[in-house]
Amino acid sequence: MTAVPGPITVVIADDERTVRESLALILEAQPDLEVVATAADGETALRTCTELRPDVALLDVRMPGRDGLWVLAALAGRGLVGPGPGAVQVLMLTTFDHARYQADAVAHGARGVLLKSLPWEELVAQVRAAHGARHRG
């Protein structure tokens, strides 16, 4: 008998409540995705990702205080980003299409930087692709 894999677990971190709630609604509508937590700031996001070890984390690049790039660097410094069991696949979210964000995020192991204006179908596809990368390396 083959075990049925569980849903892809996701943590969402964004300082804007509307963005967090909208993303959660979109992702939770998918039968294979489960939002296990949301965070409004970087400190909470780091603590949540460290404790829950979600398959995928969606982190806002710019948040007051500790931002998403800080969270990504902290997770990478703890060896929690990358392929393999227990690793978190990180997708950065931004309103602004800046090459600097892309370079900083990729340097710390993010799977990509997504614009918040991305169609929801593409967002869902990117979350699934990031999860697949966890197993491919």
CATH class: Alpha Beta
CATH superfamily: Response regulator
Percent range for helical residues? 40-55%
The largest sheet has its strands arranged as 2-1-3-4-5
The whole-number mean of residue pLDDT values reads 91
Please summarize the sheet with the most strands: 5 strands, parallel
Class by helix and strand content? alpha/beta
Q: State the low-pLDDT regions, or none.
A: none
Tally of extended strands? 5
Taken as a percent bin, the fraction of beta residues is: 15-25%
> How do the SSEs run, as a string of H and E?
EHEHEHEHEH
- Per the principal axes of the C-alpha atoms, what is the gross shape? globular
CATH architectural name: 3-Layer(aba) Sandwich
Task: Explain what this protein looks like in three dimensions.
The chain contains 5 helices and 5 strands. The longest helix is centred in the C-terminal third of the chain and has 17 residues, at 120-136. It has one domain: Rossmann fold (3-Layer(aba) Sandwich), CATH 3.40.50.2300. β1, α1 and β2 (33-39) form a beta-alpha-beta unit. With 137 residues, the chain is of the alpha/beta class. 43% of the residues lie in helices and 20% in strands. Strands 2-1-3-4-5 form a 5-stranded parallel beta sheet, sandwiched between helices.
Layout of strands and helices, then pairs:
Layout: E1 8-13, H1 17-28, E2 33-39, H2 42-52, E3 56-60, H3 68-77, E4 89-94, H4 99-107, E5 112-115, H5 120-136
Parallel strand pairs: 1-2, 1-3, 3-4, 4-5
Descriptive keywords:
137 residues; alpha/beta; Rossmann fold; five-stranded parallel β-sheet; 5 strands; globular
